[in-house]
Design a protein that fits this description.
5 strands; 5-stranded mixed β-sheet; alpha/beta; single chain
Length: about 220
């Protein structure tokens, strides 16, 4: 039996992921950042209503904020980030709206259904650094209490037969003021500094410089 390359495994994985219709109350299409081979993973919560239409994760206002954070902290453009970091999520389909307005929080069984995709990604890519964004994503790796006690710290985690570091970030939603006021503002900066200094993230940054594509000035 011929062993498949990581790229081949990931391409086949993403193709299967895009066909998933396991959750009847979720709204397809599945949102994927594509088969980016990377040892840095970003894990979001769930797509909003714009992401399935635009065909990529973090494609709307929260994404603009997220990519601005990485541009300011590391000089990494959105295009560079998307081409170099595997972008996963707790759930890959839009959950729909609540009757009272706002996006519905995925149900526990929907989170469990989608966990197999993340486990497979961890198994294939064997990341050294995972960046969970928002409390729902953070909860998949460590118990999350107050953001004040979690953001700005690095945690060792084991999941799907792999050990890696996680550095959590708050969700960049405009609906949450946490990251725009203290202590959230300072803790966000501390978290981004930890990410930029992480050895695996530095490997990624050095590849931009080697290719002449770095934006850091």
């Amino acid at each position: 039996m011929v062993n498949k390359s990581v790229k081949q495994q990931l391409v086949e994985h993403v193709a299967s992921l895009l066909e998933c219709r396991s959750c009847p109350h979720m709204h397809p299409a599945v949102v994927s950042g594509g088969p980016v081979v990377s040892r840095v993973l970003l894990v979001g919560q769930a797509p909003g209503d714009k992401e399935p239409v635009l065909g990529r994760p973090f494609a709307w206002t929260a994404g603009k904020t997220l990519f601005r954070w990485f541009k300011e902290a590391a000089g990494v453009s959105e295009a560079q980030f998307r081409s170099s970091v595997y972008m996963a999520a707790v759930c890959r389909c839009f959950p729909g709206k609540k009757a009272t307005g706002g996006d519905r929080v995925p149900a526990s069984e929907e989170i469990l259904n989608c966990a197999r995709w993340l486990d497979r990604e961890l198994l294939i890519l064997r990341p050294a650094l995972v960046i969970p964004v928002g409390k729902l994503a953070i909860n998949q790796f460590i118990p999350s209490g107050k953001l004040d006690d979690i953001i700005g710290r690095q945690f060792p985690v084991a999941r799907a037969g792999n050990s890696f570091d996680i550095i959590p970030l708050p969700h960049p939603s405009g609906a949450s003021p946490w990251h725009r006021m203290e202590p959230g503002k300072s803790l966000l900066k501390k978290a981004l500094d930890l990410i930029v200094k992480h050895p695996q993230f530095r490997v990624m940054l050095s590849s931009f410089v080697a290719c002449g594509g770095g934006d850091r000035g």
